[in-house]
Specification:
About 15% of the residues lie in helices and about 40% in strands. By secondary structure, the chain is α+β, with helices and mostly antiparallel strands. It has a six-stranded antiparallel sheet with strand order 20-17-16-14-23-24, sandwiched between helices. The longest helix has 15 residues, at about 275-290. The chain starts with a helix and ends in a 14-residue tail after the last strand.
């Protein structure tokens, strides 16, 4: 045979992307490029102009990294389980090569070279303009991210739509989110996130070689979703103004954020808060193949000094002394993610769900990130486990202590709350659009013997609860309210109950203030101080009237009013303080998609919103998006929207992928923000007489 003939022997290599991607649960990501999961074989076809000459053979070589930093020579027969290998079958002009990756292979973009080798080991021909992506494989029993429940896999890997729980532990609300992990080029951006981490920029080869480990990769993602100390995706901001970016509440999905970060040359996107950070992390981790779910912890503590106590200092007018109270705080809710993995780096009992928190709160090994931390370690109080277990434990278990700082500087303890932190810990159910309570995954029942044992193991400070009663009478203080609507006037009822045998003359102070969900004080709305006589064994109620005009000027975008009631009575050893947060509900955006929807065919959505406020709204804008439906789209409303006026728009789009899809809409204006709407769109396959069924638009 001539050398010329040998050079021309390999005519083509077919990566068989459609078949492989379908078998590897990656068809949703891309139907054209090869995307496979580790620990599961895939096949390629090598086409030739004839049979291989005697004693000639094919070799396969893989490279990873922009500069091919890592090289892997694929063995021709099965060896140890930690090696790539391939087997070959076929003859004449077509050979089927089946590649087997180890279950702990490095994830990333691989370059593939097919080599025709001579008997003496020379390369006679090379086909090397091919590449594929390798992801984690939660369907593979030998992969450390293996999850045996198919229902959970469909939710925690395959579902592009999610629900985030917000509000307060007493009044939980939900908002839909488009994770969009299979949208066009999102996978590429996820690897771009990894490639721009400090570890990757410092030593690319070492970073790539560590990407077999989901603990390492998830820790990188937790750092890279925020931009505090790297080329991260999101900049956090918890107060207005947001005019030089996008307000956190305006986002309805992760895809516009990731695309903007990439398109801008890996410059941080403005702005995010905890649920946005968590949702973007969920998108990236699901896309890479790590089962992940978003968690909301209500009444979440941020314990800076590690004493398992959140101390709030108030002046004698019940105003927060933020500058003197340290950085401890308690948030109405806080979001993080849990990722599923086996922890080979830890003792037995720490496998399963791991807390990962990308919100920049505290440093972990010198970087703003948190986790992964086993949920089981938090429940059992094993705070020596990696990573950041003491901080996560405090988030769900800390005490809240209120102090009054008197004019002479002395502190007076007025309230200790052992039970409020870590309430109604929530995630979306795998069975539908409703809430699962996972509190008992994090802690034993409140007041149980097992809970006390865990606290003792964790070193939680035992704080005596201040007495709420002394002679001459036992007093109880409570706050009651309906579910007020933003834009209306409403009443808050403060009740003082006297269970003693003597009448009580008390001074009652009632204060309503606007706060953010992270407990930042935005201004006072109303204050009243009155003297109340409470007969023995009776209750006395006082009304605090809150008018729209009073709270509209200072209420935050979180629409939260915090009411404090404070009682002092002659003869009582300790004053009483009770605090409640009142969320103001907002209207909804109404969406209709009439008729049947087919892939690649235009459908119309009718969207309407009615102004519920007694004032006009200016600068109205609708934002729409939906995985498999349409990219993020903004539509501005012309002119003002008068009180009671309904504004309607019609939007046309062509669905890109089949399946059950969610269309999400956000409405914002100058006086009313974060108004959401969602509808389900079932996108059907399109059939043609002479073509096979169509399930995607390219």
């Amino acid at each position: 045979l001539s050398n010329h003939f040998l050079v021309c022997l390999i005519s083509d290599v077919d990566l068989r992307s459609p078949e492989n991607n379908s078998a590897h649960h990656t068809r949703e990501i891309d139907g054209k490029r090869l995307i496979v999961r580790r620990g599961q074989p895939f096949s390629i076809t090598v086409q030739s102009n004839g049979s291989l000459p005697p004693k000639h053979h094919l070799d396969l070589v893989l490279h990873l990294g922009k500069r091919d930093e890592v090289e892997i020579k694929v063995q021709k027969e099965r060896g140890a389980g930690d090696k790539w290998w391939f087997n070959q079958q076929g003859a004449q002009d077509e050979m089927l090569l089946t590649l087997h990756s180890p279950a702990d292979a490095i994830i990333g973009r691989y370059s593939l070279a097919v080599l025709l080798m001579s008997p003496d080991g020379r390369i006679l021909e090379k086909k090397d303009k091919m590449s594929f992506h390798l992801l984690y494989n939660p369907w593979c029993k030998d992969d450390v991210v293996y999850l045996p429940d198919e229902t959970q896999l469909q939710e925690y890997i395959m579902n592009e739509d999610g629900i985030i729980y917000m509000g307060t532990w007493e009044y939980i609300k939900s908002t839909h989110w488009n994770y969009g992990q299979f949208e066009d080029y999102v996978m590429d951006i996820c690897f771009e996130v990894l490639n721009n981490s400090n570890d990757a920029l410092r030593n690319s080869q070492m970073d790539i070689e560590q990407r077999f480990d989901p603990v390492y990769v998830s820790r990188i993602i937790a750092a890279m979703v925020n931009s505090n100390d790297d080329r991260g995706v999101l900049t956090g901001r918890w107060t207005e103004p947001y005019s030089d970016g996008v307000a956190p509440y305006q986002w309805t999905g992760s895809v516009p954020i990731l695309r903007q970060w990439s398109k801008a040359g890996v410059r941080a996107v403005k702005y995010g808060q905890c649920w946005v950070f968590a949702a973007v992390a969920c998108t990236v981790l699901r896309c890479l193949g790590i089962p992940t779910r978003l968690i909301t912890n209500f009444s979440s503590a941020h314990d800076v000094d590690g004493n398992l106590s959140i101390d709030f200092l108030l002046d004698e007018n019940l105003q927060p002394l933020e500058s003197r109270g340290g950085r401890d705080s308690s948030w109405n809710f806080h979001c993080w993610v849990e990722s599923w993995m086996r922890r080979d780096d830890l003792p037995k009992g720490n496998d399963g769900w791991q807390v990962l928190d990308p919100t920049p709160q505290e440093l972990s090994n010198g970087v703003f990130r948190c986790g992964p931390c086993p949920v089981t370690a938090i429940k059992e109080g094993n705070l020596g486990v990696k990573y950041d277990a003491p901080f996560v434990f405090a988030e769900v278990n800390a005490d809240i202590i209120h102090w009054i700082v008197q004019r002479n500087g002395q502190r007076r303890k007025i309230r200790v709350d052992h039970a409020t932190v870590g309430r109604n810990i929530s995630t979306k159910s795998v069975y539908g659009d409703f809430r699962d309570d996972v509190t008992l995954h994090y802690k034993y029942p409140e007041g149980s013997k097992k809970e006390r044992e865990v606290y003792e193991k964790a070193g939680r400070r035992v704080t005596d609860v201040p007495s709420e009663s002394s002679e001459p009478g036992r007093l109880q203080l409570s706050i009651k309210h309906a579910k007020p609507v933003f834009g209306t006037d409403f009443d808050v009822i403060i009740e003082v109950k006297n269970e003693g045998d003597q009448d009580a003359h008390v001074q009652l102070t009632m204060l309503a203030m606007a706060v953010t969900y992270s407990s930042l004080h935005r201004g006072n709305c109303q204050r009243q101080t009155t003297t109340v006589m409470v007969p023995a064994h009776k209750a006395q109620q006082e009304v605090l009237r809150l008018r729209y005009d009073d709270y509209a000027q200072c209420v935050s975008d979180d629409h939260l009013i915090r009411v404090k009631a404070f009682v002092e009575a002659p003869g009582e050893n300790e004053p009483l303080l009770t605090v409640t947060d009142i969320p103001l509900s907002r209207p909804e955006v109404f969406i209709q998609v009439p008729g049947k929807a087919f892939v690649c065919e235009q459908v119309k959505a009718s969207i309407s919103f009615t102004n519920p406020l007694p004032v006009p709204l200016k600068g109205g804008v609708f934002t729409l998006e939906g995985a498999g439906l349409l990219s993020s789209t903004k539509i501005h409303v012309s002119g003002d929207i008068s009180p009671g006026q309904t504004v309607s728009i019609v939007v046309s789009f062509s669905p890109m992928r089949t399946g059950v899809r969610k269309l999400l809409v956000d409405f914002d204006s100058d006086r009313l923000k974060d108004v959401k709407g969602v509808t389900t769109v079932v996108v059907r396959k399109k059939y043609r007489n002479i073509f096979p069924e169509i399930t995607e638009c390219y």
